[in-house]
Amino acid sequence: MTNDIISDMIARIRNSLTREVFYLELPSSNILEDIASILLKEGYIEKFETKGKHPKKILALHLKKDAIKGLERISKPSRRIYANLQNMPRVKEGLGTAILSTSKGVLSDRMAKKEGVGGEVLFYLW
After folding, report:
1. What structural domains does the chain harbor?
2. In terms of Cα–Cα distance, which of 116, 111, 76, 109 is closest to 95?
3. How many Cα atoms within 13 Å fall on the side-chain side of residue 72?
4. Which residue of 17, 21, 61, 115 has the smallest Cβ count within 10 Å?
């Protein structure tokens, strides 16, 4: 069991893309499902689904072939990084996406600007 489920998700996606396997399964949680829905809205994955019941719930991701070029974990359990509306990060000069955990849930940087909230910067995606 890993303590940092977001880093585990990022590592699994990165490894899957390196091996050119575009389907992966990982243990599910509410925050990972929220992140998967953001990735779907932003066009980085084709679809996602949850399988099973509570103790052994699985999150299945169907990745797009050339949509994700890189992922970088920003906020870690040992060091939290926060951004407010004035210093919202710009990933790859606006071509990438920052995923934030806000008071209104998990949002992308574009949605957070639209909502007018800041929060903890979880990771960058381009």
Report:
1. 5-63 (3.30.1370.30), 71-125 (3.30.1490.10)
2. 109
3. 11
4. 21
Query: Cα–chain-centroid distance for residue 57?
Result: 18
- How much is the pTM? 0.90
Ramachandran bin of 79, using left for φ above 0, alpha for ψ from -120 to 50, beta for the remaining angles: beta
Each residue's pLDDT tens digit, 64-84: 999 999 999 999 999 999 999
48 to 4, 5, 23, 30: CA distances (angstroms): 21, 17, 10, 13
pLDDT in tens, 8-55: 999 999 999 999 999 999 999 999 999 999 999 999 999 999 998 878
Give the tokens for residue 1.
């069991």
Strand partners, 71: 125
| Exposed/middle/buried for residue 46 (C-beta within 10 Å: 0-12, 13-18, 19+) | middle
